[in-house]
């Protein structure tokens, strides 16, 4: 999941679709995010590269919609509903996820285990 | 008061006691007896014996001697013991006499030389001015106001020179150094040469030719005085200013108990550096206490005494050196094989000693505090009203002293300080503390920790005559890594020098506007 600024990023991603749950007048997804280009990347416990300013999933409410959809703690959000999540501020990320007129979010997330699974299945030709 | 007992003068024994050497300084006429009626059935008699160290050289004996002294029971003072001198003392007395005579001679000689030189220097300008008037008054041109102005300037410059020389040179000598003080000698020679050359010029050009231009002569005298003032400036720089800037860090170690101090010195010759170090020694180093070293000496003696080496082959087989060599090797091998438990003993002994000292200290503190509560200062108004049982500080001290005497004496004996403090000095100190409204803790501080050597009376210094031992010449300057010794009778001070390094400093400019900060957060939002 390392990146070089200015170069296109390639990653193995998983498509996750979460149905928002209505609680009162709020639509909740059931997880917490951390990170962003305005945050301190060194304090992120989930990233491998401590200069990675992407959005990471820091907590999952057990039994919530995200948990049911297959989101895991430590996942990095690459896209939300088509919007890019790798170079956004924390507040922009929150806004994209909590749009009131959408009740479904389609996420592209990446994690280390995906990369390794692909590597193993590809054998000696690992995807860069 | 529950701690009253009978005291009397203490005994002291003859032999190798340093106390007997100073019998001339003891005041034999201060045997005061004072009996006090008390409410208990015992009677209190306080005899103040002459000021004397209580114990002789206890370091000679290996173990703690149970001796009778002022806290305990009575003993008789025999006449013979006070006046006996050992062979060592006689030798020391004669050596002191010789040394003092030799030093005085040298000091008077240098003093006489200095006085002669000073007189020469001061009278020369005056002579320059006066001689033309005496020798050829009729030929002399009278000079007007310019000359009189120059007379005034000569007078004031001479006055300033007189004051400056008095300030710089006429101070009581601090010490007698082994070699001549190089800078002073050089300056004296320079001044002498200078004055002699001026006289030479004066004699040849002015006296012989009987010059009539008096103003020129007066200006010549003024130039002499100016030059003398500049030489005095040179003297200040060489003698006083040059050694002020610290250049060396010296480490002074006492050879007996390893006390270490560090001082900063400037560029000095070795003898002047030694003098500065000795002056610091008297102010900084705690007084040397040979009684504290007896423990390690006894341990060393035990190590050596444990083994006896016999030469089985008979005499005449090896050379003497070879015999000694084989003996020492045998002893070292045997000692290595023997199971030595002396470290265990040392550990428990020290722990026990620590406990004992703390216990005695606790008792002492309580006794002193209780004793101090018996004394109250009388106010002015009360003094006029009730002149009853009024005491001055000395009597007050003597009144409360018996209640704490035993505890204090026991504490001093445990910490092996009993020979540093005599009963008279303790009572004096007590009177001093009472006069100045000191608390019991303030009174005790001088007995709980050994103070610098200067605070004790001269008898206890154990450091009077110093010898400088150095491989380099003592008038050469201090260098990095120079080592010398200052030896006195009981111990020596080992001095090593290290140069303060040359410091290369560079500069970096920081624009005050360049101090900018960012906030680094890591927030977590639930969605």
UniProtKB/TrEMBL annotation, chain A:
- Which SMART domains has this protein been placed in? PDZ (SM00228)
Q: Name one GO cellular component term.
A: postsynaptic density
Q: Where in the cell is it found?
A: Cell membrane; Cytoplasm; Nucleus
Topology relative to the membrane: Peripheral membrane protein
Q: Which domain of life is it from?
A: Eukaryota
PROSITE patterns in alphabetical order = PDZ
Task: Tell me which Pfam families the record gives.
Answer: PDZ (PF00595)
- Signal peptide from the UniProt entry: none
The record's listing under PANTHER family reads:
DISCS LARGE (PTHR23119), PDZ DOMAIN-CONTAINING PROTEIN (PTHR23119:SF50)
Name this protein carries in UniProt: Tax1-binding protein 3
């Amino acid at each position: 999941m390392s990146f070089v600024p200015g170069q296109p990023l390639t990653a193995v991603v998983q498509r996750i679709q979460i149905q928002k749950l209505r609680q009162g007048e709020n639509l909740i997804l059931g997880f917490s995010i951390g990170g962003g280009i305005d945050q301190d990347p060194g304090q992120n416990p989930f990233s491998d590269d401590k200069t990675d300013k992407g959005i990471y999933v820091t907590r999952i409410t057990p039994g919530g919609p995200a948990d049911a959809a297959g989101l895991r703690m430590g996942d990095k959000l690459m896209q939300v509903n088509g919007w890019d999540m790798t170079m956004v501020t924390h507040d922009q990320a929150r806004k994209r996820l909590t749009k009131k007129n959408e009740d479904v979010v389609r996420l592209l997330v990446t994690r280390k285990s995906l990369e390794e699974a692909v590597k193993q299945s590809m054998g000696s030709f690992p995807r860069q | 008061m529950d701690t009253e007992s009978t005291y009397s003068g203490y005994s002291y024994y003859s032999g190798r006691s340093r106390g007997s050497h100073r019998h001339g300084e003891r005041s034999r006429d201060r045997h005061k007896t004072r009996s006090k009626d008390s409410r208990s059935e015992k009677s209190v008699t306080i005899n103040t014996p002459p000021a004397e160290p209580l114990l002789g050289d206890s370091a000679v004996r290996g173990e703690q001697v149970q001796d009778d002294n002022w806290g305990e029971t009575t003993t008789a003072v025999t006449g013979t013991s006070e006046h006996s001198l050992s062979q060592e003392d006689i030798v020391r007395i004669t050596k002191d006499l010789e040394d003092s005579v030799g030093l005085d001679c040298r000091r008077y000689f240098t003093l006489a030389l200095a006085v002669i030189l000073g007189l020469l220097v001061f009278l020369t300008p005056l002579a320059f001015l006066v001689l033309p008037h005496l020798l050829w008054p009729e030929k002399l041109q009278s000079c007007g106001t310019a000359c009189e102005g120059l007379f005034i300037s000569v007078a004031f410059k001479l006055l300033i020179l007189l004051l400056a020389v008095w300030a710089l040179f006429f101070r009581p000598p601090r010490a007698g150094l082994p070699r001549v003080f190089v800078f002073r000698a050089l300056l004296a020679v320079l001044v002498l040469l200078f004055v002699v050359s001026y006289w030479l010029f004066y004699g040849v050009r002015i006296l012989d030719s009987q010059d009539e231009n008096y103003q020129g002569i007066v200006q010549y005298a003024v130039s002499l005085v100016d030059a003398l003032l500049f030489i005095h400036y040179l003297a200040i720089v060489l003698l006083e200013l040059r050694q002020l800037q610290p250049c060396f860090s010296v480490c002074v170690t006492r050879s007996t108990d390893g006390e270490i101090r560090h001082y900063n010195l400037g560029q000095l010759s070795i003898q002047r550096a030694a003098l500065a170090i000795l002056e610091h020694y008297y102010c900084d180093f705690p007084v040397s206490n040979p009684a504290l070293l007896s423990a390690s000496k006894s341990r060393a003696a035990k190590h050596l005494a444990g083994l006896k080496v016999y030469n089985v082959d008979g005499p005449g087989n090896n050379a003497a050196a070879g015999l000694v060599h084989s003996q020492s090797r045998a002893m070292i091998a045997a000692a290595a094989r023997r199971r030595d438990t002396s470290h265990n003993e040392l550990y428990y002994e020290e722990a026990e000693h620590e406990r004992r000292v703390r216990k005695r200290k606790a008792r002492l503190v309580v006794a002193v505090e209780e004793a101090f509560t018996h004394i109250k200062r009388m106010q002015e108004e009360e003094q006029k009203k009730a002149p009853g049982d009024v005491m001055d500080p000395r009597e007050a001290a003597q009144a409360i002293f018996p209640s704490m005497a035993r505890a204090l004496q026991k504490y001093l004996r445990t910490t092996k300080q009993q020979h540093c403090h005599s009963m008279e000095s303790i009572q004096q100190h007590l009177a001093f503390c009472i006069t100045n409204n000191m608390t019991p803790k303030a009174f005790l501080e001088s007995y709980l920790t050994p103070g610098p050597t200067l605070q004790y009376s001269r008898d206890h210094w154990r450091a009077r005559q110093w010898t400088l031992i150095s491989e380099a010449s003592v008038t050469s300057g201090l260098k990095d890594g120079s080592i010398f010794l200052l030896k006195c009778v009981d111990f020596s001070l080992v001095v090593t020098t290290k140069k303060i390094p040359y410091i290369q400093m560079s500069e970096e400019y920081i624009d005050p506007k360049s101090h900018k900060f960012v906030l680094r957060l890591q927030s977590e939002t639930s969605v």
